[in-house]
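lol ok so funny story. i was supposed to be doing the assay writeup but got distracted and ended up predicting the structure for this chain instead. priorities right. anyway since i did it might as well share w the group, maybe its usefull for someone
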Amino acid sequence: MIELSQQQCQAFAAEGNPTVIDPTTNASYVLVRKDVFDRIKNLLVNDEDLSHDELRLQLARSSAANGWDDPLMDAYDHYDEIRPAK
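and the output, tada:
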């Protein structure tokens, strides 16, 4: 773990997610708070390494986390049947 200096902490607070540069390699990095990273890290996974079952499990977890298992969403299964005619 790397600890930020007081000046770096102030820059982070002022900029939100500042870009930092490794002077040795010239590579750029974006600092993101750990709680934010924990929420988005699954978006960064290489899906090619996952089996179909693992992908289905991730999709099911995502759907549940976003409310798609709410009984009120059942209306979408029958949308064409209940959609008003134009």
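The chain is about 40% helix and 5% strand. Residues 21 and 86 are 57 Å apart (CA to CA).
back to the writeup now i swear
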